[in-house]
Design goal:
The protein is of the alpha+beta class. It has two helices and six strands; from the N terminus they run ααββββββ. It is elongated and about 95 Å long.
Length: 210
């Protein structure tokens, strides 16, 4: 019985010992290897217009576009806020000025009895010495000056037309030397100006002769 012998494997060609299959192909074919990092099968740069790969994370938005209607609403609200702030500033300015005037009037009113008493003392100073009269008059003038600097000048002018905003007609008399409706005598000085008075001047007014 004859036993067949298997053919011996042929030796590899000379010079190709380093080109044996190692699972990555020929070294000369490395750029064409699909598994190579830079081969034809390697993923290239992302095409911005290419559809997203299913299951891949969404790319971040480059910037959201705000609707025009929302921008108009925000702009309108901003303008209204500015207008409200400006109105508040004006109102606070007016309130502050009104409060300042009110406080000034309260302070000035305190001076009125002092001035009136000085006026009374001067009216009964015939028997007093000249030095006393001069001293009282100086104090009176000082008090009147304080009222003037506070914004309430003295008003005791006669020979002017009667003005209900400045004068208070206490009595009416016939005076042939004065035109009807003329202030002929000041009974009590007034302090202030029309629209901002501590009190009007008490006056005697001439009337038309009958």
């Amino acid at each position: 019985m004859t036993t067949s012998q298997e053919a011996a494997p042929e030796p590899p060609p000379e010079g190709n010992e380093g080109n044996q299959d190692t699972g990555r192909g020929d070294a000369g074919n490395w750029p064409n290897d699909p598994a190579a990092p830079h081969g034809p099968g390697a993923p290239g740069p992302k095409d911005p217009g290419a559809p997203a790969t299913p299951g891949a994370p969404a790319a971040p938005d480059q910037g959201e576009q705000v609707p025009v209607a929302e921008l108009d609403e925000l702009r309108d609200r901003w303008k209204r806020a500015l207008a409200d702030l400006d109105n508040l500033r004006k109102r606070q300015t007016k309130d502050l000025a009104r409060e300042r005037d009110s406080e000034r009037a309260r302070v000035a009113t305190v001076w009125l009895p002092v001035v009136d008493n000085l006026e009374l003392a001067l009216s009964h100073s015939e028997s007093a010495t000249e030095s006393l009269v001069q001293g009282v008059r100086a104090v009176r003038d000082q008090a009147v000056d304080i009222l003037d600097r506070l914004g309430y000048p003295r008003d005791d002018e006669t020979g002017v037309s009667f003005d209900p905003l400045r004068h208070e007609a206490v009595t009416v008399v016939e005076d042939p030397d004065a035109e009807p409706g003329t202030v002929v005598q000041c009974l009590r000085p007034g302090y202030g100006v029309p629209g901002r008075q501590l009190r009007p001047m008490a006056a005697v007014v001439s009337k038309r002769q009958e």
